[in-house]
Structure formats: C-alpha cells, structure tokens
Write the structure tokens for this entry.
Amino acid sequence: MIYFMNLSLIIVPFTDCILPPFTSKVTKTLFYHLFDGKSVFDRRMFSFSPLYRNGRPLYKVLKSRKDFKNISIKVSRNERLSAKISLIIKDKILLPKPEVEFKFNEYKFYAHIVNIEVDDISSISIDLPDIFRINFITPTLIPVPGRGKFLQKLGIKRRYRLFPDLSLILMLLTYDLQLQKISLTNISPVKIFKWAYKAIAELDYNIRPETILYTVKDNKPSVERGFTGYTVYQILDKKYLEEVKKLLGYGLKMGIGKSRTIGFGQITIKKEKINHLNTTNHKS
C-alpha cells in the first residue's frame, strides 16, 4: 500500500532569529526531529514548505543576481509561524511526535502538529471544474527536457520556463511518478503532454518572474530563477480528465517542478468565475 501523509505545523521561536534566505531549511530540520532522526524516506518522497508568516511564504527575492544585501530573514521571539510537510509512505506508516523542541543553527524552536492527514493513494484525485485557477505560491522551477545539452554547450548551468506550461507540468508529474514506481495513471508522459497541449487552454494569468536566493555557502550564492502568480485554465476536451485530476492532486500534495522537495513549486487550485475573464493581463 502507498499512502500520503500531510502535516500542518505551528512553529514558534524562543528568541529573535535570523534565518536563511529560503526558510524550508528550518522545516527540513524539524522533520528529522518529528521522526526521531530516522532517514527512512527516499529524497523524492517528501516535500518541505518554507515557513509562512500570516499566510505568506518566507523567502528572499533578489532584485538582481548580484543583489546580496540584507539577505537574511528575521523573525521575532514567540512569533507564530506555520509550515507543511508532505510525505509518500510505502507499506508501513510511521507516526511523528505531536510536538517537539528543536534547534536550527544556534536558535531554539517549539513546534506542534495542528493537523495530520493520511490518505490512500487511490483518494488523491481532486474535483476539477472546466475552468480553474492554479496559484503558484512559492517560486516554481519548470525544467525543459532535452534543453540541458544546449545549455552545456553555452556553459550555462540551467534555465527554467518562466511561464506555467500546464502540458509540460503534467508531463513532468507523470514522469516523476514513474521514477517512484507509483502506478497512479496509465498514461505516458509524452501522451499526456501532446493531449494537454491541445486540450487545455490558458484564459488569464498574472505571472511574476523572481530571482530567489536559496543559500550562500563559502561566500558563493546559490540563486534560482522561477515564477509565482496564477494562471486560469479551461478544459476543452475531457478524454484524459481523470488523469489530470490525479496528477494535479499529486502536485497539490507534493509540489511541482524542480526542487519541490525543498519548498519550490507549492500550489493551490480553485474554481474560477467566468465573469472574471474579460481581459488578459499583459502590457502592450
């Protein structure tokens, strides 16, 4: 049996803190304390969100790749922060501690679980209306298969899509499930891509490219370029709609795109009102 476990957490620092520029590192540290330091999960089998303050994710956006002033994030003593951890569990369910105290760097925190959900993989499918909106809450990094050889020739490390191509997203989610040997759908990555490219239309969008500082090590910054915002889609053909419902249900729980395990690519999905779609957000 394969299960999904979702943990919603409240995290409170005992003192004023200076945190790294992408705060999912704190969530990842907390994870190992909740499970007694047991490293029993494959690296693709979990997703750690950044810390959230008042519903907004805490991470550092740079004005440019050379903008490294004030890169740390400050939080206050007794400030209530939140986070989410999602896990794929095969065979045996391991339950976390309900509350822990833990240290991140020199700072001490208290954390407790406010909600825990465990669902069989068969229940992952979501309700999806014909017109729906995907909100990209944290920076989303969509790799393009086959692009690497061209980047290598130019001496460029990576370049991600800066617009949410849903056909590509569905293809990558299908491929990710295949790597984990999870039989969620019976469709191939290429087949879902070709169908979705024609059958799912973009109706509206508000997308912001962002340069994100993940960490600085030995005075060398690790920077990623992704996007946040939203896109509204319409299903034009329902031939593979059930597969889309399952794949987006998986993306809701585990994130989408590159580095989803460390908090990139966190999304929400909701129904969109048709009367909102009179104009398209673009500048002439």
About this structure: The chain has a mean pLDDT of 88.
